[in-house]
TrEMBL record, chain A:
This is ABC transporter substrate-binding protein. PANTHER family: ABC TRANSPORTER SUBSTRATE-BINDING PROTEIN (PTHR30483:SF37), LEUCINE-SPECIFIC-BINDING PROTEIN (PTHR30483). Residues 1-23 form the signal peptide. Pfam families: Peripla_BP_6 (PF13458). Keywords: Amino-acid transport, Signal, Transport. Residues 25-375 form the Leucine-binding protein domain. It comes from Pseudooceanicola spongiae. The keyword Transit peptide does not apply. Belongs to the leucine-binding protein family. It comes from the Bacteria. SUPFAM superfamilies: Periplasmic binding protein-like I. One of its GO terms (biological process) is amino acid transport.
UniProtKB/TrEMBL annotation, chain B:
This is Branched-chain amino acid ABC transporter permease. The keyword Cytoplasm does not apply. Belongs to the binding-protein-dependent transport system permease family. LivHM subfamily. GO terms for molecular function: transmembrane transporter activity. It comes from Pseudooceanicola spongiae. Its main location: membrane. Pfam families: BPD_transp_2. The chain crosses the membrane at residues 6-27, 59-82, 94-112, 139-159, 187-212, 224-247, 279-299.
Length: 411, 310
C-alpha cells in the first residue's frame, strides 16, 4: 500500500518536473476590472488578448514558445492592482498587460520600476493598451512602459480638428470622470479649442465620480440648460453607457464627441438616436477597409464572444509587436524585447504602427467615426455600426505629438 | 427655475425609491432590533429575478412575481436562518446578515455573471412622456413615481387602518403580550421580514432597469439605505420617509449646483484658486448623505423621528 502511494507521488513529482523543464509558455498577466461596474471594458479586452495569443501560438508561437494570458481582477483599484501585480510576478509573469484606468497604470508603472531596480535579471515589462494620460510618455515616462493606444492629447487633436471644421458648433460642454484621466481630457480640450477655435465658448467643464453615478439625468439636464452644441467626454465603461443613455432619454440630439463611444452598450442605449450624434476617435473600427484575414478575425471574435464586439484592435497590435520584437531580439527576456521594440514597425490591421523609441508611445493612424445604419458589421447586436466620417482618417504622422520624455535606460 | 423643477422631480423619484428600500429595513429593525446588512442584496435579487422572468414572460408579470419571490426568499432566511441565530444574541444576528450579503453577492455572480445584465425598460413605457424646458422626460420615471406612491399608500393603509397592521404594530413593541393574546408572533415576524424583503425586491424590479443591474448594485446601494434608516431614526417609518426624500433631493439638486466652496465661504477668505475653494458642490454630491448622517448623529443621536439611540 505504502509503496503504491510513494509511486504515485513520485510520478506526480516527475510530471511537475517535466513541465517545469520545458518552460515553453510566456506568462502575460492581464490586470484589469473583470467584475463590477467597469468589467464591460475589461472583459472584451481580455478576450481580445486571448484570441490574439491563440492565433500567435497557432502560427508557431513566439520563437517557438506559447503565450499564456493569465487574468487578474483589479476592480479598477490601484491598491488592488498592486496586490495582483505582486501575485502575477510571483507566479512567473514577466509581462504585464493593463489599460483601464490611468490611476491604475500610474501605480503599475511605479511598482514595476521599483521591482526592476531591486531585482536585476528579473525585470518586468508593462504593456499599457489603454491608459491614455499623456504624462506616461512625457514627463513621467519609463523605459519599462510601452503604450499601444494614442494618448489624450493625440485623440483630442482629432476631436478638436473635427470641431474646428463645424461652424455650427459655438458652445461646447466638457464632462469627464473625476480622476487623472478626466482632468487630462478636460485640460487638452480647453487648450486645443482655445487655439483652434477661439470663438467657441466652453459652457461647462465638469467632473463626476468615477464608476459611481447610476443616473446621469441631472448632468444631462445641466448640459441641456447650458445650451451646448456639442459635448466632449473621455468617459469609458459604464460611465460612457449611462451618460449617453440619460442623453437619449432626455431626447438630446447634439454631437457627443467621445474617446470610448465604442464602449459596450453605448450604441444599444442610444438606438437610432446614435446616428450622427455619437462620435468616437479610435485606432480603427470594424467597418474600415481591411484585409480578408482581419475580417475573418472580426467574425471569429463575434462568434466566440457573442456578448461583445471586436473593439480592442490595439490588443492584437500589442501582441503582434511583442512577437516581432522577441523574434528580432531572438529572446523573450524583457530587456532584450524592450530594446528590440524601440523603433519597431509592424503592419497593424488599419495601417502601420511604429513604437517611438524616445518615449515608447505607439504611433498609429487614428479614425473619427460615427454611427450609421446598414454597415458591414453592426455593434451591440443592433443593425447600427461605425462608419468613418468625411476627412476622419488621420495619419500616424498627423496624429503624432512631440514628447518631453527623458528616459533612463538600463545598460 | 428649470433646474429647480428637474431637481425636484428627480429628487422625489430617487427619494421614493430609497424609501421603498429602507422601509423594509426599518420595519425589520423595529421588529428584531437588528440591522439587516443583507437588505440591499434583496434589492439586487429583485432586479435579477425580474430580468430572468422577463426573458420567459414580460415585464408586468415580473413586476408582480419577482417581489413575491424575493419575499419568499426573505421568509426562508428568517425561518431557517435568523430565527436559529436569534437565540445567540444580536451580534450573532448581525454577523449572520453580514455573511448573507456576501453569500448573495457571490451567488448572483455565479448565476448571472460578473458584468451587468441587459435588463431593459419595457417597450410600452419606453417613450418620452412630456417635454419640459427642452428636455424630454421619460415615461418610465413617472411610472416609478406612481408605483412608489401606490406602495406608500398601501403600506400606510395596511399598518394604520387594518387589523393585521394593528397586530404587527403591537408585536413590534410588545411581542410577549401579543403572544399571550394567542397570536403566532414568530409567524408575524416571518411575514414582516418577508414583506420588508419584498419591498426591497420591488425597488429592485423598478429601479434595476432604470439604473443598472450588476453584481455591484447591492454594495453601492447598501450604505445609502443605512444612512436613510439612521437619519430617519431607527425603526421609524415616518422618519425613513422624511430622510429618504431629504437625501434624494439633496443628492440630485447638489449635482446641478455649479457653485464652488469659494463662492459660498468666500467671505471667510477662501480663494477659488485654492485646493479646497475649487471644490464644487456638484462634485460633493456623493458625500452629502454621509455628511448628513454624521451631523444628525451629533445633534440628534436618535435620528429625526426615532425614539431609541443608535
Amino acid at each position: 500500500m505504502r509503496s503504491t502511494r510513494t509511486a504515485v507521488l513520485a510520478a506526480a513529482v516527475s510530471a511537475i518536473a517535466v513541465t517545469a523543464a520545458h518552460a515553453d509558455t510566456i506568462k502575460m498577466a492581464f490586470i484589469d476590472p473583470l467584475s463590477g461596474a467597469m468589467a464591460s471594458s475589461g472583459e472584451p479586452a481580455l478576450q481580445s488578448f486571448m484570441l490574439a495569443a491563440e492565433h500567435i501560438n497557432a502560427n508557431g508561437g513566439v520563437n517557438g514558445d506559447d503565450i499564456e494570458i493569465v487574468p487578474y481582477d483589479n476592480k479598477v483599484s490601484p491598491k488592488e492592482s498592486l496586490v495582483q501585480l505582486q501575485k502575477a510576478i510571483d507566479s512567473g509573469a514577466r509581462y504585464i498587460l493593463q489599460g483601464n484606468g490611468s490611476s491604475v497604470a500610474s501605480a503599475i508603472i511605479e511598482a514595476v520600476s521599483k521591482h526592476n531596480a531591486r531585482n536585476p535579471g528579473e525585470e518586468v515589462l508593462f504593456f499599457n493598451y489603454a491608459a491614455v494620460t499623456p504624462a506616461f510618455t512625457n514627463e513621467a515616462c519609463s523605459f519599462w512602459h510601452f503604450r499601444f493606444d494614442a494618448h489624450t492629447d493625440m485623440k483630442m487633436n482629432a476631436i478638436t480638428d473635427w470641431v474646428a471644421k463645424r461652424d455650427d458648433i459655438k458652445k461646447v460642454y466638457i464632462i469627464g470622470q473625476d480622476y487623472v484621466h478626466g482632468e487630462a481630457v478636460a485640460a487638452a480640450a480647453v487648450a486645443q479649442l482655445k487655439e483652434k477655435r477661439p470663438d467657441i465658448e466652453i459652457v461647462g467643464n465638469e467632473l463626476h465620480p468615477l464608476a459611481k453615478v447610476k443616473d446621469f439625468t441631472p448632468y444631462v439636464q445641466k448640459i441641456i440648460s447650458s445650451g451646448a452644441d456639442a459635448v466632449i467626454t473621455g468617459n469609458w465603461g459604464q460611465d460612457m453607457t449611462l451618460l449617453v443613455k440619460a442623453a437619449a432619454d432626455a431626447g438630446q440630439k447634439i454631437p457627443y464627441l467621445t474617446f470610448y463611444g465604442g464602449s459596450n452598450g453605448a450604441v444599444a442605449a442610444l438606438g437610432e438616436g446614435a446616428i450622427d450624434t455619437l462620435y468616437q476617435v479610435s485606432e480603427g473600427v470594424t467597418n474600415l477597409d481591411a484585409s480578408p484575414e482581419q475580417y475573418a478575425m472580426i467574425e471569429e471574435y463575434k462568434q466566440r464572444f457573442p456578448q461583445y464586439d471586436y473593439y480592442y484592435d490595439r490588443a492584437f497590435t500589442t501582441l503582434e509587436m511583442f512577437d516581432a520584437a522577441a523574434e528580432k531580439a531572438g529572446s523573450v527576456e524583457p530587456i532584450a524585447v524592450a530594446k528590440a521594440m524601440e523603433g519597431l514597425e509592424v503592419q497593424a490591421a488599419y495601417g502601420p504602427a511604429t513604437m517611438r523609441a524616445e518615449d515608447h508611445q505607439l504611433q498609429q493612424n487614428l479614425f473619427v467615426t460615427t454611427v450609421a445604419k446598414d454597415q458591414k458589421y453592426g455593434v451591440d447586436n443592433t443593425d447600427l455600426g461605425w462608419r468613418l466620417v468625411d476627412g476622419g482618417a488621420i495619419s500616424a504622422e498627423a496624429a503624432s505629438t512631440p514628447t518631453t520624455c527623458k528616459m533612463e535606460r538600463p545598460e | 427655475m428649470e433646474t429647480v423643477v428637474f431637481a425636484l422631480l428627480n429628487g422625489v423619484i430617487y427619494g421614493l425609491l430609497l424609501f421603498m428600500l429602507s422601509s423594509g429595513l426599518t420595519l425589520i429593525f423595529s421588529m428584531m432590533g437588528v440591522l439587516n446588512f443583507a437588505h440591499a442584496s434583496f434589492y439586487m435579487l429583485g432586479a435579477y429575478f425580474a430580468y430572468t422572468l422577463m426573458e420567459g414572460s414580460n415585464f408586468w408579470i415580473a413586476l408582480f412575481i419577482a417581489p413575491v419571490l424575493v419575499g419568499l426568499a426573505g421568509m426562508v432566511v428568517e425561518r431557517y436562518g435568523l430565527r436559529k441565530v436569534h437565540a445567540r444574541g444580536h451580534v450573532a444576528e448581525l454577523l449572520f446578515t453580514f455573511g448573507l450579503a456576501y453569500l448573495i453577492d457571490e451567488v448572483v455572480k455565479i448565476f448571472w455573471g460578473r458584468t451587468a445584465v441587459n435588463y431593459k425598460v419595457p417597450e410600452l413605457l419606453d417613450f418620452p412622456l412630456f417635454t419640459l424646458y427642452g428636455a424630454q422626460y421619460p415615461a418610465y420615471r413617472i411610472f416609478i413615481l406612481l408605483v412608489a406612491i401606490l406602495m406608500l399608500v398601501a403600506l400606510w393603509y395596511l399598518l394604520r387602518r387594518t387589523r393585521a397592521g394593528l397586530i404587527i404594530q403591537a408585536a413590534l413593541t410588545h411581542p410577549h403580550m401579543v403572544g399571550h393574546l394567542g397570536h403566532n408572533v414568530p409567524m408575524i415576524f416571518m411575514m414582516v421580514f418577508g414583506a420588508g424583503c419584498a419591498l426591497a425586491g420591488l425597488a429592485g424590479v423598478i429601479g434595476g432597469n432604470y439604473f443598472i443591474t450588476d453584481p455591484a448594485m447591492a454594495v453601492q446601494m447598501g450604505p445609502i439605505v443605512f444612512v436613510v434608516v439612521v437619519v430617519g431614526g431607527l425603526g421609524s417609518l415616518e422618519g425613513a420617509f422624511i430622510a429618504a426624500m431629504l437625501i434624494g433631493l439633496l443628492q440630485t439638486s447638489a449635482v446641478s449646483i455649479n457653485a464652488s466652496l469659494a463662492d459660498i465661504f468666500g467671505f471667510l477668505g477662501l480663494a477659488g484658486t485654492s485646493e479646497v475653494g475649487g471644490i464644487t458642490i456638484a462634485s460633493m454630491a456623493p458625500m452629502l448623505p454621509f455628511l448628513l448622517l454624521v451631523l444628525v448623529l451629533m445633534v440628534r443621536p436618535t435620528g429625526l423621528m426615532g425614539d431609541r439611540e443608535v
